[in-house]
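=== RUN LOG ===
request id: a7f3
mode: sequence -> structure
chains: 1
length: 398
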Amino acid sequence: MTPNSAKPSQSPDQLFGITGLLTDDELVVRETVRNLMARDVRPHLQEWYASGEIPVRELAAAFGGVGLLGMHLQGYGCAGTSATAYGLACHELEAADSGIRSLVSVQGSLAMYAIYRFGSEEQKQEWLPRMATGEAIGCFGLTEPDYGSNPGGMLTRATRDGDDWILTGTKMWITNGSVADVSIVWAQTTDAPSGIRGFVVPVATPGFSAPKIGSKLSLRASITSELVLHDVRLPASAMLPEAAGLSGPLSCLTEARFGIIFGALGAARDCLETTIAYVRDRDLNGRPLAAYQITQTKLADMALAYGKGMLLALHLGRLKDAGALRPEQVSLGKLDASREAIAIARQCRTLLGANGITLEYPVMRHANNLESVLTYEGTAEVHQLILGQQLTGYAAFR
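=== RESULT ===
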């Protein structure tokens, strides 16, 4: 074989035999979402990222039309798929863009899941069918300007006034906030047991506003907002009856982190596939860049990190489908996937050289997005401490 000749290349998924580990139903989900991204999303990503604007309602309708929204929930118009199938959908969504996956994750695994898991039957009937189709969009108000990794210190308050609740406070970094129809807001209560409680807040309620946050360098193909609650009056029926204390919102975050595991690896896969195609075509001193040893060692290491992450993700998916997945195991996956994905994106950028900093290629867009994925829904350090506590028996968060 001459230096300029080459055998057909394998994708990282082919190298690890990922497809052979999936059921027929899971393959259908993967291909459906992959085709949807190719048709309705990928052609527009450069424009959306550059402008910082995204047609959320049109996308929500398209995603609801194929059953993506709340797809792993049962009933109320939801598709009722397996957890692994949902993970694979997140994988394909984030292979397009992290912001696209965030739209679906916040809708299904945060806003819809909170109502599904903790809501009254009336709340479920009112919101879940419309959210499943994309007619109604939800957001999830937990993080505050000064309380991210320590949500238990939140300053948002819910105070009794007769049979009503009055909510006052501010939430920050809320995906879908300014385009939502309903927000799940978590607040400290002074007149109810168990402290923190969740409320279903229609955004048309007087005193509620959601100014959009601009000037982002990450997740630009995503709507991010502040939530401002100024004496928002809600009936008693707005409270999520089954959520008492911090365990409620934290269980929602665990649900969303599961999708992030698969999603971050989708961004890594797209970086790898883009880079492999690029170095095979890029000529350097009369040889393809792919034919140099240093290029191949970089690709080999990245493919290994990606493949191990996918095997872990699929293992966690099987555990979740069996009802055996524990929160600390989700931390294993979130820590590994987000950390390895951003390392892969950065390394791929070096192989693309100057082309890697343009929007013509998706690699730096993925890298910028993964800066947010690395820190939201539990920073790497928080997940390290969760795992450390499990390994040693000692809590070292303070």
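=== NOTES ===
The chain has a mean pLDDT of 93.
Residues 196 and 246 are 6 Å apart (CA to CA).
=== END ===
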